[in-house]
Each structure stands twice: as C-alpha cells, then as structure tokens.
Structure to design on (381 residues):
C-alpha cells in the first residue's frame, strides 16, 4: 500500500510555551493548577473520543496534514511517553529522558493506516493512566527534575504543563471536527432544546429590557446563536428589530418554519453584513450563551468582526461560562457532546478590549446546574 505524502517534521523547541501563551491554540501554561492536571487530561481525552467518531476522521484535510486519526495516534503516544517520563522522575530526581522522534514514529507505525475506533480506545486508556499518575504525585515531589536529551530541564510540574499544551494544541489542530461535533449535537436535538429553553427567566428578561433601552425603539441588532428564538421574541416585544442567526442549520429551519427570517451564520468566517440594510452597521449585538463554543484563540477574531459590523457606541450583550480551560458537556437540555471554552474575567476583559469593545460591567450569575456565568455589558468603541 502506498505511503501518503510526508507531513512536514516539527523541529521547533516548544518549551517557550511554559513562559507565555501559545498564539495559536491560546493555551497558557502559567494558568494551569497542577492539582487539576489529571482532570484536564481527562477532559481533553473526551474531546478526542468525540472527534474520532467523525466519519471523516481518517481523511486528511490536505495531502501534507495529518487526519484526525493520525493526530490522535500522536496524542496517544504522547500520553505513553509522558507517563514513562513522570515515572522516571519519581524514581530518580534528575532522570534523563530517552530521545523520541515523533515524526519517525508516525511513519514507522503507519499512523495513516490505523483504525480510528482502535485508536479511540487506546487513547482513552493511555490518557487515564497518565491522568491517574498526575493525581498521585505527592505534594513534595512536584519540584523533582528531569532532563530531555537536548538539555531542556523540567520539574514534574512544568513537565505536566508542557504535556498538556501538546494535547490542547492538537485538539485545536482538529477544531473543524470539534465544531462539527458540537453543531451535530444541537442539530440532533434542536426541537427538544428549543422547547426546553422557551421560557425567559426574570433575570434574562431584565437583561433584555436593559439592552433594549440602550439601543432604543426601532434599533436593528444582530443576534448570534438564536437557537429556538426565545431572546429574539423578547427583544422584538421591546420594539427592537432582530436579525436571527445560528451556526446550526436545524435551528435556522425551526425559526423559518415559525415564520421568522433567519440565516445560517458563522461569526468567525461568514459575511456579517445585514441583508436587510446592506452596508449599514447594526445598532447592537446580542450573543447570549452562544460564543462559549468559540475556541479561545478565535474569540478575539469573532469579537473584532462583530465590532466592525456594529455602530460606534452600540451595546454588546455576551455571556460565557466561568472557569479554566476547555471542556465537553453531555448533559443539560441535550445529551449530545458539545465543546465549551471557559473564561476568567480579566482575560475576557483583555480580549474584549483588544477587539474594540469598552466593557461597562462583568456580572456573575449562577446557572441551573451549578455552573457560573460571566455576563458582559460592553459598548463598541
């Protein structure tokens, strides 16, 4: 069987990610609590389990780029390597690590021919083994050291943080598959989700009324993530015109079937110009519990695009889940796996400012299932 085109070898020294955020995937090693390394490894493994179920998992997006399955093979092997290194350092402070050529391994082990279902199971086992090993590190052992063959020195703590970047970065590499999985979950339960979220709480109604007062009667706003249309109805009752949009086609179909104009719209890539008023900026943007699915590294881009499509002084309503890292949910209004990115207030404020928004307030709200939300009121600068 023929060998696929070679993937360009990765010869970069990635140890710099221990000192500053990765500009691609957004991972910030300095923000990682070593006590949560095991939990974060498990969360990441859930993401790989989901994307390996994609029927395109074995398909390369381009000749010289790994498929989802090939990336997953690498992540599986990374878990195994780091489990070995962790054990070495626990056995001997100052242990030296054997060299590992990841690119040679991919060719020799024919990652391109491996079965996605088998890799899925193997990755889960390897992830759990190393996650349990991190859970079991004694408090007085985190400063024990290990040396890579090129001389790079790690403590157990920095080794874990470095390991985690590899996992997060490669799930970012396959983010198209992550996005497809999230959209598919909503699509498979669109009617159920719309029905479950049909009632407006008193807290949400108050937010709608404040937003409507800011834009004024007759204003035209862009809603990102309309879902079943609950918030749009409330805004229209307050004399605000709403452009309903959603990235999930099933929600768009439901809205149209109910007699509303609605558009399938991805705020990261699609033209945001208002078809009802070409060339005219929106008077505000309503993005309630929708941009929490946007990858951390992409949120600045999305918010900047929304700012460019909004009139100066126009308000933004934005709500995201509070927390660290990324995660998957298989509970709530629907059971299908959905990816989430969690945020803390200060990094979120920085992203909003960089994207052209002036933050007026960031409030915290309790969710229905014990989660915490950051609710942002901002204005277009």
């Amino acid at each position: 069987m023929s060998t696929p085109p070679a993937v360009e070898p990765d010869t970069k020294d990635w140890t710099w990610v221990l000192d500053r955020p990765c500009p691609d995937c957004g991972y910030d090693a300095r923000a990682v609590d070593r006590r949560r390394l095991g939990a974060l490894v498990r969360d990441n493994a859930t993401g790989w389990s989901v994307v390996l179920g994609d029927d395109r998992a074995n398909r390369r997006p381009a000749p010289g780029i790994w498929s989802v399955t090939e990336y997953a093979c690498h992540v599986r092997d990374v878990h195994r390597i780091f489990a070995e290194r962790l054990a070495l350092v626990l056995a001997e402070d100052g242990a030296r690590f054997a060299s590992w050529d990841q690119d040679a391994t991919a060719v020799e082990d024919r990652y391109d021919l491996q079965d996605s279902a088998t890799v899925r199971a193997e990755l889960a086992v390897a992830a759990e083994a190393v996650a349990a090993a991190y859970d079991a590190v004694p408090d007085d052992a985190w400063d024990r050291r290990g040396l890579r063959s090129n001389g790079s020195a790690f403590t157990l703590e920095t080794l874990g943080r470095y390991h985690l970047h590899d996992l997060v970065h490669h799930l970012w590499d396959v983010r198209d598959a992550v996005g497809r999985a999230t959209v598919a979950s909503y699509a498979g339960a669109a009617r159920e989700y719309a029905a479950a979220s049909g009632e407006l709480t008193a807290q949400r109604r108050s937010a709608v009324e404040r937003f409507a007062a800011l834009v004024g009667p007759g204003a035209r706003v862009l809603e990102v993530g309309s879902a079943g249309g609950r918030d749009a109805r409330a805004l229209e009752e307050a004399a605000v015109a709403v452009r309903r949009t959603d990235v999930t086609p099933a929600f768009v179909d439901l809205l149209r079937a109910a007699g509303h104009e609605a558009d399938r719209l991805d705020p990261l890539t699609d033209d945001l110009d208002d078809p009802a008023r070409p060339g005219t900026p929106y008077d505000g943007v309503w993005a309630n519990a929708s941009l929490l699915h946007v990858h951390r590294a992409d949120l600045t881009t999305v918010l900047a695009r929304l700012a460019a499509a909004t009139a100066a002084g126009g308000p933004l309503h934005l709500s995201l889940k509070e927390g660290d890292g990324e995660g998957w949910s298989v509970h709530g209004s629907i059971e299908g796996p959905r990816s989430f990115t969690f945020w803390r207030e200060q990094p979120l404020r920085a992203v909003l400012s960089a994207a052209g928004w002036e933050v007026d307030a960031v409030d915290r709200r309790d969710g229905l299932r014990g989660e915490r939300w950051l609710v942002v009121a901002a204005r277009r600068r």
